[in-house]
Amino acid sequence: HAGGLPALAAPYNDVVAFVLEQRQRLSAALRIPLLLATLAFALAGWAGAAAPFHRQSPAQRARQVAAWRRSRLGPARDLIRFYESLTLLALCSRAGLADLAAGRAA
């Protein structure tokens, strides 16, 4: 939900591109475990929603993310935090929002 700010509104293709680019910039020592953890997350949807993450409804996706965010497993929580942080960085870097944060008119 964009909260009425045009800079936060869809589409989010730029955000996805930013996240994927940052993930590719990681060293192989970090990138490979991150890709494996991401694959585990995607496939974990089969347990709760009988579908991989990308085929779930928005409500099912929100439940899966929430479950991983509060998981007992630190790496599961860290994975969600990684993607949420990059997403927030990309959104806050959008034109207009940076100006708004700096106190200038968008």
Task: Give your account of this protein's structure.
The chain is mostly helical and 106 residues long. It is 67% helix and 0% strand. The chain is built from 5 helices and no strands. The radius of gyration is 16 Å and the shape is globular. It starts with 12 loop residues before the first helix and ends in a 5-residue tail after the last helix. The model has no long low-confidence stretch (mean pLDDT 88).
Number of helices: 5
Calculate the mean pLDDT score and round it.
88
| Alpha-beta classification | mainly alpha
Return Rg in Å.
16 Å
Helix-strand sequence = HHHHH
Measured as a percent range, the helix fraction is 55-70%
Largest sheet: none
Strand content: under 5%
| First-last Cα distance | 19 Å
**3D shape:** globular
Unreliable spans are: none
